[in-house]
Structure of Phosphoribosylamine--glycine ligase:
Amino acid sequence: MLSPMRILLIGSGAREHALLRALAADPTVTEILFSPGNAGATDTPKATRLAGDPLEIAREHNPDLVVVGPEQPLVAGLADQLRDAGFAVFGPSAEAARIEGSKAFAKDVMKAAGVRTAEAQTVTNVVDIDAALDRFGPTWVVKDDGLAGGKGVVVTPDREVAHAHAEAVIAAGNPVLFESFLEGPEVSLFCLVDGETVVPLLPAQDHKRAYDNDEGPNTGGMGAYTPLPWLPADGVQRIVDEVCLPVAKEMKARGCPYSGLLYAGIAWGPEGPAVVEFNCRFGDPETQAVLALLETPLAGVLYSVATGALSEIEALRWHDGAAITVVLAAAGYPTNPAIGEEIRGVEGPEILHAGTEEVDGKIISTGGRVLNVIGTGKDLHEARENAYARIADIEMEGGFYRSDIGLAACEGRISIPDEVR
Ligand code: GLY
C-alpha cells in the first residue's frame, strides 16, 4: 500500500463528506483535495477545497489516487480521461458505468448473466405508452432511461400518473422504461469490484419517499440504516453469488471490466434477491451509515481497487452495532427546494454536509438535501435515538426530515417472503 498518500475527491454531497472523513481517518493519507466539496470540508484539517476541471486539478496537483463520487462524471468518461493521463482512479470507465447510465444496457447484462430482475419494456414513442401500461400494473414502475438522480422513477398504482410521467420522459428526449413491480423489502448492497474480485460492504436500506410511512414523491434518499436485522445470515453472500459476481464476470467477458463500487439495489421477493437497479458509485445516503461502521482504513482499500489489487486485501473489519443517517431536507424538496436559509447547530462529527456553503461565517443551504445526521449505537434502537436527539438541535427555517428511518426494522416489521424455488 502507498504511504503517504494524497487524494483528489470529486463531488459535493453528504456521501462525499462521509468519504472525506473516512479517507482522512486513514493514517497513510496526508492531504485530500475536495472538489468542488461543501462547507463540511472545514472540519477536516487534511482537506482543501478546490474548484475547477477535475482533470486540470489532477494534472496540477498530481494526486496518488482520484476518487470520483457521483455518477454523472463517471458516465461521461472522467475515470477514463484520468486513467489515460496516468492517474490511479477509483471509479468505473464510461463503458462500465453504463450499468447505471443506461437501464437498457443493465437489463442486457443481467439477461446474459442469468440475474433475476424485473420484466421490462422500453418505449420511445407516446403512442406506445398505453400498450405498455396494459402489459404491466397494477403497480406501475416507470423509469427515465437516463440519469435522473433517483428522481426519474415513478412507482404508482395510478395509471394516469404513470402515463403522465412516461409522456414527460419522452418529451424530454429520453426513452422510458416500464417494469414489473418487484415485491419484497429492498437492500442496497455496495460491492468493491476489481474485475472478477467482489468484496461486499455492509448491507443497508434506503428510504426513498419524502415523508413518513413511505408517502410522498420519490427523492434521492431521505435516510438509511445498516446492518439489516431482518436479512438472512447468508443474505449478503447470496446477493454476491447470485447478482454481483455474475454481473462482474459478464462485464469482463464483454470487454468492459468493472473497477470501482457496484451498487446493487435489490428487492428480496418470493424468488430470492432480484435487481431493482444498479448504480456505478457509492449510494447516497446509505454510504453515510455504512462508512460510520467501517473500521478498516478506507484509502488503502480504494487504492487497491484502483490499482487492480483488491484480491490482496485483508478481510474488511467493521465496528459492532448499528448506524443510521437522517437527511435534513429543505422546504419544497424534492420538487422545488427553498435555498438560502441559515442553518444553526451543525458542528460536530455527527453532521455531514450536503447542500451547504459558508457565507460570512454562516452556514447557508444551497440544495434540496441539506445535510445528514449520523447516529450510531449498540443496536438500531440506540442508533436511532442518538440520530434523532442530534437532529432536533438543528435549526433551519422550513427544514424537514423523516421521523421513521429504520423504525420498521427496529420494531421487527420487516421480513422477507417465503421463498418459492
Ligand atoms: N440511495 C439511492 C442512490 O444512491 O441512488
User: Anything to note?
Assistant: The first helix runs from residue 14 to 24.
